[in-house]
Amino acid sequence: MKIGILVDSSAGIIEKNIESKIIKVIPLHLIVEDKDDFFDTAENIENNNLIDILKANKKTSTSQASPGELMNKYDEMLKEFDHIIHLTIPSNLSGMHETAVMVSKDDEYMGKVTVIKHSLAANTVKYLAFKYNEMINNGEREPSKFQQEADLWKDGTFISIIPGDFQKLAKGGRAKSLLVTILKMIKTKVAIHWLEKPKKLGLGRTYGAVLEKIYFPLSNEMKNSYELLIVYLNEASIKVTDQVKNFFNEKKVSFTIEEIPTVFPWHAGVDTIGIIAIEKSLMPKNK
């Protein structure tokens, strides 16, 4: 059985830039002022100056791939593969997961698509997709094994976010479970622990203060050796990103810098920072 992997653009994978021929990407939608709709692709972002639009503080929102778009992608992939492992953006961020489950139950896709249940986000999903690629290359053909791997990542990862603009995040409906009173504290930074039900880690007037609120549970929860990723847009404030890097340098924690997938700052502001830790034992050998 030939297996293909499908992710959406929230994973931060640019298909043409990776060696794998079995990982495919379906774009989500980036929407400006409730009227201009762009596929979330590197080409569209560059050609339409979408990061400049984000920095200009215009109203920005996202939309999932439509059922029709998803069906077209499944049809396209099933010409090449016998089975699809679909790793969507998590259900606590979008209805994409529910749409995929619904479509996968259609008669023409029944038994041919496995939609993975998880609460992982951003670059974490990218590395899980790479791990799936490794599993397939090593001969894994049992769909249930991919769900089991995702379950391991739930306990072996730590995902946190410092929104660049918490008001923007809340207005977009992505922070309903958090304290709305934070909105009154204009200069306060917020650290969010990204779980199945995201929760507030802490508040602070400075990035150093909120990073301490992230570092304490991170160091407690990640008992095993881990790789730390600091993710943000290239266009984020250097003043902000330097504070984050300096914090972990002072803690003598090594890290890798990566670009955050656009859909996250699209909801939470251009200076949004993600702090992600993944157990080294889970990471794919070829990244």
From TrEMBL:
InterPro entries: DegV, DegV_C, DegV_domain_contain
Pfam families listed in its UniProt record: DegV
A molecular function (GO) term: lipid binding
Domain of life: Bacteria
PROSITE patterns listed in its UniProt record: DEGV (PS51482)
Keywords from the named record: Lipid-binding
Protein name from the UniProt record: DegV family protein
Organism: Spiroplasma taiwanense CT-1
